[in-house]
């Protein structure tokens, strides 16, 4: 289990907002992370396309999983709006 912590910078003080346990079995790969800014913010993360998921920060519940078996490594994630994200795999595949 890999934990990552989200921080908020409201002023000169750094505040921890939440910690999410990431169950990755990827060895040397680190998960990619993007934040959905909303009233109930979520975290999009995964190391491979097959492991992409969105976790609600308040409830710590998984709200979305990719549901694909493609194990391509992710190189980047980007949240576009409250309902849309984009990804790029190390092969150059975009989605």
Mean pLDDT score? 75
Q: From N to C, what is the helix and strand string?
A: EEEEEEEE
Task: Summarize the main sheet.
Answer: 4 strands, antiparallel
Separation, N- and C-terminal Cα atoms: 27 Å
Sheet with the most strands: spatial strand order: 3-4-5-6
Q: What is Rg?
A: 14 Å
Q: How much of the residues is beta strand, in percent?
A: over 45%
| Count of strand segments | 8
Tally of individual helices: 0
* Silhouette: globular
Describe this structure in words.
By secondary structure, this protein is mainly β. The chain has a domain at 29-89. The protein contains no helices and eight strands. Strands 3-4-5-6 form a four-stranded antiparallel beta sheet, with no helix packed on it. Strands 1-2 form a two-stranded antiparallel sheet. Strands 7-8 form a two-stranded antiparallel sheet. The chain is globular. The protein starts with a strand and ends in a 6-residue tail after the last strand.
In short:
The protein is mainly β.
Task: Chart the SSEs and their pairings.
Layout (H helix, E strand, L loop, with lengths): L1 E7 L6 E8 L9 E5 L5 E5 L6 E4 L5 E4 L8 E8 L2 E6 L6
Antiparallel strand pairs: 1-2, 3-4, 4-5, 5-6, 7-8
